[in-house]
Specification:
The protein is of the alpha+beta class and 129 residues long. It has 3 helices and 5 strands, in the order αβββαββα. The longest helix has 22 residues, at 54-75. The protein has a 5-stranded antiparallel sheet with strand order 1-2-3-5-4, with helices on one face. The protein has a single domain (4-102), classed as 2-Layer Sandwich (HIT family, subunit A), CATH 3.30.428.10. The protein binds zinc ion.
């Protein structure tokens, strides 16, 4: 299957891994709209959030909780916001975005260039906690 997220799960494409468990993976997106912008995905390929079975759906949102808590602390923000859209990659992914004010979750905000030095520095900050 030609799915970039499945390739990341399989280890065929590297990622800035924030967290994982048996069934989920969280990693920094290479097109962040805010620093620390992280994607949480099920390891199994599922195209559409609302077609997931209830157990998998609940488990995905549970998986996002410790990741969001960590991002909140490390990025020192009052909230981590969440969005699901799914037009860019056809594999369910929750966007976790550290925010300090309304409007910072807008998916139409310009993505920052994939700056690998900055991403590596952000990941180091997260993993240090
Ligand atoms: Zn996939």
């Amino acid at each position: 299957m030609d799915c970039i997220f499945c390739k990341i799960v399989a280890g065929e494409i590297p990622c800035y891994k924030v967290w994982e468990d048996e069934s989920h993976l969280a990693f920094l997106t290479i097109g962040p709209i805010q620093e620390g912008h992280t994607l949480v995905i099920p390891k199994i390929h599922v195209p559409y959030l609302f077609e997931m079975n209830s157990d998998a759906y609940s488990a995905l949102f549970e998986a996002a909780k410790p990741v969001a808590e960590k991002l909140k602390q490390v990025m020192n923000v009052p909230r981590v916001a969440m969005a699901v859209e799914g037009f860019s990659v056809d594999h369910v992914h929750l966007h976790l975005v550290p925010v300090t004010a309304a409007g910072q979750l807008d998916p139409c905000l310009e993505k920052k260039e994939a700056d690998h030095t900055a991403l590596a520095a952000t990941l180091a900050k997260i993993l240090k906690r």
